[in-house]
Design goal:
Number of strands: 9
CATH superfamily of the largest domain: SPOUT methyltransferase, trefoil knot domain
Low-confidence stretches: 1-6
Mean pLDDT: 93
CATH architecture of the largest domain: 3-Layer(aba) Sandwich
Structural class: alpha/beta
Strand order of the largest sheet: 2-1-6-5-7
Order of helices and strands: EHEEEHEHEHEHHEEH
CATH class of the largest domain: Alpha Beta
Shape: elongated
Bound molecules: S-adenosyl-L-homocysteine
């Protein structure tokens, strides 16, 4: 029987399948610290597929020259389709993502949605990108990690998975710290301080050592609003804040 994927099924771990020409780049940064421990404990799983294994010709070529001419190479639709169909066969309800600078910029809201789902299949582009027909035929969701160009989708996939995995149940020791991060309330986070009480002549703001929790909360909120207005005024409307200059 099919079960609803609206909320994370506590029992089935989040499954990530990554299609890449460089499987040796994984788990990479995701093999250490919180994500690495969670991977070891089975809180999520990671499968990498070498795209080249799905090439048919004797040179195992995965790319060809762009139709219409121009510089660079384009990844072939037929080879990629075989790889995707293997990793994500019909009935697999995990979203199929293509890391792409043309995609929708990744947000914490999308990261939360992905973390609540069964997993992801991620295609990492290389060269000039992938044949448009593959994107359409396999319903790929293009996701960007920012307005700059990487040499390949692998670092972008690592970024996306890092953001998702830390939200999986049991991955972060202190769940509360996940709820107070920048963006979670629509604002950038307030500044942090810790011992020593004085550092190179700079003291910790007095309110933070006052023990007055209401005052501390008010100060933090005000700092978050001030920083957001200063650095990211574009976030204010979504955070329910008036945009003033
Ligand atoms: N010619 C393309 C860039 C290709 S970069 C263009 O101008 O749009 C090669 C691959 O790196 C892309 O296919 C994509 O998978 C990945 N990539 C590059 N920049 C990225 C970004 N900002 N976000 C996500 N993936 C990116």
């Amino acid at each position: 029987m099919m079960t609803s994927q609206e909320t994370r099924a506590d029992t089935s771990p989040f499954r990530a399948s990554v299609l890449t020409l460089y499987p040796e780049m994984f788990p990479g940064a995701l093999g250490v610290s919180l994500a690495g421990r969670a991977l070891g404990e089975g809180a999520w799983s990671l499968e990498t597929l070498q795209i080249r294994d799905f090439a048919h010709d004797k040179h195992r070529s995965v790319d060809d020259t762009p139709a219409g001419g121009g510089a660079g190479m384009v990844m072939r639709a037929d080879v990629l389709a075989r790889a995707i169909d293997h990793a994500s066969p019909e009935g697999d309800d995990r979203p199929r993502l293509l890391m792409s600078p043309r995609g929708k910029p990744l947000t914490q809201a999308r990261v939360r949605e992905l973390a609540a789902g069964p997993g992801v299949t991620i295609l990492c582009g290389r060269f000039e990108g992938v044949d448009q027909r593959l994107i359409e035929a396999r319903g790929l969701e293009e996701v960007s990690i920012g307005d700059y160009i990487l040499s390949g989708g692998e670092p972008a996939a690592l970024v996306l998975l890092d953001a998702v995995v830390r939200l999986l149940p049991g991955v972060m020791g202190n769940q509360a710290s996940g709820d107070e991060e920048s963006f979670e309330g629509g604002l950038l986070e307030h500044p942090h301080y810790t011992r020593p009480q004085e550092f190179e002549g700079r003291a910790i703001p007095e309110v933070l050592t006052s023990g007055n929790h209401a005052k501390i909360a008010t100060w933090r909120r005000a700092e978050a609003e001030r920083l957001t207005a200063e650095r990211r005024p574009d976030l204010l409307p979504a955070a329910g804040q008036p945009v003033t200059k």
